[in-house]
Amino acid sequence: MQHFERGRLHGHNIVAVLPGSAPEQQAGHVVIGAHYDHLGHGQTGSLALFGEKGEIHNGADDNASGSAALLEIAEAFATLEPRPERSVVFVWFDAEEQGLIGSQYYVEHPRFPLRRCAAMFNLDMVGRARDGRVAVLGATSGEGLERIVLGAARRNRLDATLVPYMVPNSDHFSFYRKKVPVAFFTTGLHADYHRPSDDADRIDMQTLVRIARCAFDAARTVAATAGPRPAWHEVRSAPFGFMALELLEGLTGREGFGKLARALYGPVAGAVVLPSEHGLEVLYVEPDSALAEAGVRAGDRLEAARGGLLGSRRHALGGRLGRLRLWAALTGPPATLELRRGDRSLSIPFPPRHDAR
Ligand SMILES: [Zn+2]
Ligand SMILES: [Zn+2]
Q1: ipTM
Q2: Which residues have their alpha-adjacent CB atom under 5 A from ion ligand 2?
Q3: Of 199, 224, 249, which closes a domain?
């Protein structure tokens, strides 16, 4: 138990350690975390509507889902044979809702030096999957971490979308700032977010179990063998507009806001793309998406859609417009995608023409 004070706030992080088969000083460790605090009767941070004020906020999704998953993950690790070489540290953080205070305290007073922390996995709001999907944010912060997460997702039949953005909205951010590679699992915002209606009957248990298994699997892969820790990389921070639109979707329950947010900033129609000067670099294509079926692959660069250029010299805005153009092309009447694969230029019809095969 790790006690901390900040003004009138008294908090307790709960820290458990599973020693690795190799000494931590040599092999390092992995941290898996979830915050267990919530909003009480909604004194601070509540979005309760007028009639709900003062009611208990149970926080089934935020974050009983993550803390319960972490209990199961800890149990699975405890019975694992053979024991991983790296030690595993499980942390239930307090005072996340007041501004990541528990995790900030932990990174200043870590159980083991953070320079030996190979990766931190965070679970916050993992109970409200839509169509069985989970988003994993920030995994580009660790060399090879995305591959590990995707492998774990595949083995556990989990539909995971990697989002190459860093958002300072949960405890992983405290570790990221200390240059620890992180991966943040979340099923995102919804209309019951920070309201008394965030209750257990709305949890998608089936997907929650898959997410817990996937996080366990990914953490086990990193912990299994000691070696050099994955190199840390800076991750682009999500623009404020992205978060605002996502929040609007969560609060209003209208999918249009989220769609617009993702078109402007996030994964487009089953692919994660990064804007660049010459187009949209494709980082990842979901296996069953229409883009995959059309023949677009990771590593391609989408240069134009329906004749409109997708990149621009002025990166940020150009890229955003590029995503929006791509989204418009993929959701509108049939289009042609111009792309670059290595030194070849390809024209691909979209939607894919089945008769042409
Ligand atoms: Zn939370
Ligand atoms: Zn919260």
Answers
A1: 0.97
A2: 62, 97
A3: 224
